[in-house]
Amino acid sequence: MIRWMLVVVIALLVFQGLTAWLRRYLGFGRLPGDFVFRAFGRQWDLPLGSTVLLSLVAAAIAHWI
After folding, report:
1. Where does the sequence pass through the membrane (predicted)?
2. Which residues of 1-23 are buried (b: 16+ CB within 10 A; e: fewer)?
3. What percent of the chain has pLDDT over 90?
């Protein structure tokens, strides 16, 4: 259980670091279903549409391999 939690935390940190690159070059965060909120002096991104698209691509790659 701890190993999976560690994997999830590391994946989230890597994903957070790649967000600016993904947004600039691949349009991540600009699909329908991606929400941007401003609250408490910060910008909060909720990329639901992009997350679904990336999970479908990952599932397709896993299926082909």
Report:
1. 44-64
2. eeeeeeeeeeeeeeeeeeeeeeb
3. 8
Which residue matches tokens 């599932």?
59
Count CA atoms within 13 Å of residue 23 on its CB side: 13
Domain ranges of the chain: 2-64
Flag whether pLDDT at 51 surpasses 90: no
Rounded Cα distance, 21 and 63, in Å: 26
pTM confidence score: 0.59
Q: pLDDT value at position 8?
A: 83
Q: Within 10 A of 42 (CB to CB), how many other CB atoms are there?
A: 7
Q: Give the pLDDT of residue 23.
A: 79
Q: Which of 60, 34, 56, 65 is nearest to 47 (CA)?
A: 34
